Amino acid sequence: MKCSTLGIGLAGVGTVGSGVILALRRNGDLIRDRTGGAVDMQVTKALVRDLSKPRAVALPQEVLTTDWKELVADPSVDIVVELIGGTTDAFEIVAAALKAGKPVVTGNKALLAERGVELFALSKEHDTPIHFEAAVAGGIPIIKTVQESFIGNRIHSMSGIINGTSNYILERMTTAGLDFETALGEAQQLGYAEADPALDVNGWDAAHKAILLATLAYGFPIDPAMVHVAGIEQVRPIDIDFATRLGYVVKLLAVVREHPNGAVELRVQPSFIPKSHILASVNGVFNAVAVHGDAAGESLFYGRGAGQDPTASSVVADLVEAARSLRQATGHRGFLPYRESGQLLPIENTETASYVRFDVTDRPGVVAEIATELAKEGIGISGTHSPVNPESPDADFVDMVFLLHTCSFGKLQATLDRIEQLDCVNSSPVVFRIEKL
Ligand SMILES: NC(=O)c1ccc[n+]([C@@H]2O[C@H](COP(=O)([O-])OP(=O)(O)OC[C@H]3O[C@@H](n4cnc5c(N)ncnc54)[C@H](OP(=O)(O)O)[C@@H]3O)[C@@H](O)[C@H]2O)c1
């Protein structure tokens, strides 16, 4: 078989970009053998911000550039890999590559979730694919699973733990009794959390990934502004404590589910999940996605959701696929919208049982006041508790916890808005979903 070297234009030589270079050096021969000699790849141009920065992975000086236009236009570049992150320069690079007919590989979930509509349209217009396995769950081949392996399934649901940083923080809060700030500090020290961990802890990193999965499974572009996202910043040791006592584990859960009327439920929030469910034992920086297809039934995909080598593994797999498509035209393989009338289920219409924590002034009648408001809306209470701090049993302000029967989120939210106005309630109630998985 013909084997001429394909040139890679690598935009970004950071954590993942360096991993890609190392993986190609380590396993380039293996890839060549496994593809029957068809795929041989070499990084011929690499984009960085700072040419003088010392790098663990050395590249010849003439390969490096700080000008993305030079990288995309270079005739030695056949495939463009975008690993710089962000949604501005990254957008320009991907758009320019597609217009030049150069297949793109990216690990950038924020870019595709926020600006995927424009990029997938360009991909279609120029019949040039965007591959993005590394954008969701690092080394777990979940994009390929949804796009290819489950192509003959109607996907009923996908529930996932798809942000390793928040999962690590929640695990440390659970097993070591740390508070949120201490656990976050530990994650940063270990290099699991970014210096700016905002997208990890506010739920948006997981939401971007969930949006991509839902887009593939249900065939219509999803506006991020329509997605309900809550992060783990409000999780307190008391919530972890309650969850443990009640037989649950707190996880940042992404839920994607198709309803019988075709509407798609899509939300990300800290949730109580039963200790006995397999997702409850996904710990540390690991990710897992449970996919329920009408034919395949329930399948679980588990593995390393981030990090240099696992993410590079997905990028390299996409590179091989992009290289094959260049060698043998297989047509466009990015996301093609196929469902015109797709719609998200309004978050108000989603239903679960819930755990609600109130910060209240401790005086007689508080429980009754809150319970009365809940009863007015027919929201059932399955339990209530107010832990006493043994060091200050007469404290004026206490946490009060209610476990509530299943009701719509809209009804719950409206009732909580009213409860928040009560004199005895000092701040916005904190809600956790209790999931039936
Ligand atoms: N890290 C992970 O585990 C992981 C997992 C899955 C997906 N991803 C995604 O992969 C992408 C890359 O992540 P990373 O962790 O590898 O990032 P990173 O370590 O911060 O590396 C970014 C690289 O891009 C270069 N760069 C950034 N902005 C640039 C610009 N405007 N112009 C030119 N070069 C620029 C940087 O240059 P300098 O080296 O000169 O600073 C650096 O080489 C992101 O989209 C991320 O979401 C990462």
From TrEMBL:
Belongs to the homoserine dehydrogenase family. The lineage of its organism: Bacteria, Pseudomonadati, Verrucomicrobiota, Verrucomicrobiia, Verrucomicrobiales. NADPH binds at K109. The keyword Nucleus does not apply. It comes from the Bacteria. L-homoserine binds at E194. Pathway: Amino-acid biosynthesis; L-threonine biosynthesis; L-threonine from L-aspartate: step 3/5; Amino-acid biosynthesis; L-methionine biosynthesis via de novo pathway; L-homoserine from L-aspartate: step 3/3. It catalyses: L-homoserine + NADP(+) = L-aspartate 4-semialdehyde + NADPH + H(+). Keywords: Amino-acid biosynthesis, Membrane, Methionine biosynthesis, NADP, Oxidoreductase, Threonine biosynthesis, Transmembrane, Transmembrane helix. CDD domains: ACT_HSDH-Hom. GO terms for biological process: methionine biosynthetic process; threonine biosynthetic process. Gene3D superfamilies: 3.30.70.260, Dihydrodipicolinate Reductase, domain 2, NAD(P)-binding Rossmann-like Domain. Its EC number is 1.1.1.3. NADP(+) binds at A11, G12, V13, G14, T15, V16, G17, S18. Residues 355-437 form the ACT domain. The keyword Coiled coil does not apply. The chain crosses the membrane at residues 6-24. GO terms for molecular function: homoserine dehydrogenase activity; NADP binding. The active site is at K209 (proton donor). This is Homoserine dehydrogenase.
